[in-house]
Request: fold
Amino acid sequence: MTLHPIGVIRTPFHEQKGTPIQAALASGAEGTVEVDPAYEPGLADLDGFSHITLVYFFHLCDGFDLHVTPYLDQAQRGLFATRAPRRPNPIGISTVRLLAVQANILRVADVDMLDGTPLLDIKPFVPDFDHRTDVRTGWYGTLARTPDVRADARFEGRRR
Amino acid sequence: MTLHPIGVIRTPFHEQKGTPIQAALASGAEGTVEVDPAYEPGLADLDGFSHITLVYFFHLCDGFDLHVTPYLDQAQRGLFATRAPRRPNPIGISTVRLLAVQANILRVADVDMLDGTPLLDIKPFVPDFDHRTDVRTGWYGTLARTPDVRADARFEGRRR
Reply:
């Protein structure tokens, strides 16, 4: 199956090292989503939503390992029990704050992706759909909270 | 960019009509995720998580419209302000309950995808990353709650 970018995400982050590891931990970092003008009519009604989920391609990641040491842990974990970017299908998902819609440009905050990231989809964030209660979070749940962690270079693109 | 399924999702739903429109509204419907055995090592540590987010391909959708009438509304809305499955990149995201991990097979509940859906990725659900507060939800927020809505055939695959 073949996907085609529908736009590009502009952020202040130009290398993996120092980039927020999650949108929820991005401390308000601002960016813009430049949607291909052909898709602009599909952005109607989006401005009523305070948060949107961006689906994008980890375009600098190449290959993957099935065991990884996540940023927040010291132990190796199964890849699918982590959010590490090097994945068999390198698709990223980030929920960001939508600050403004100006024609085909979205101003957003809490970005955690690299500048130039290819955009695949935009979905409205709806807590009725997206929140869950009574959640257990495995290895993550055993950690002391470390909200200031930023990425290092461990997942930079490289052949498998 | 080319993606390759890493498995297949089995559910009780064989046509769009009658399928839950969101995992959060799926009333516990159970299914299985059959991960390609080659990826089984990547499932380590997943069993500690009560919820996982499945990323998948809306394989029966073909083409898209930039304005759609969502299941929950009577008005036309911009496509990207809805979760409609016919999208430029037909990628679906559903957070389901993880009931058990048995080798390369995941037993899950609250499935809202069609039987045979190609799996692209599995991510652990972590409220610290995935929940948001102070959320506005645009047209959705103006609706009376309608938790029993099921899909009809309006988004069945068809050429644009």
